[in-house]
Specification:
Elements (H helix, E strand, L loop, with lengths): L6 H4 L7 E11 L4 E12 L1 H6 L7 E10 L2
Antiparallel strand pairs: 1-2, 2-3
């Protein structure tokens, strides 16, 4: 046991959590507005696969944000 560590992470049988491909795009609509898009796909590593009895598949994240500056 590691002092201050997350108990759930301490029970994993591997240090390989997985790999992630992350793409970020930014476009300034004007001087005060920024549009940002984020897309990612994560591939579970052996630690996740072993914890989930090999019932894993890649997961995807998509996000679009609009920022306003003053």
């Amino acid at each position: 046991m590691v002092l201050g560590g997350n108990p759930a992470l301490q029970t994993l049988k591997s240090y390989d959590l997985g790999h992630e491909l992350l793409l970020i795009g930014r476009y300034y609509l004007s001087q005060n507005f920024l549009l940002q898009g984020v897309g990612s796909v994560a591939f579970p590593g052996s630690a996740i696969r072993l914890a989930a009895d090999n019932h894993t598949s890649p997961w995807v994240t998509l996000q679009v944000s609009l920022f306003m500056f003053f």
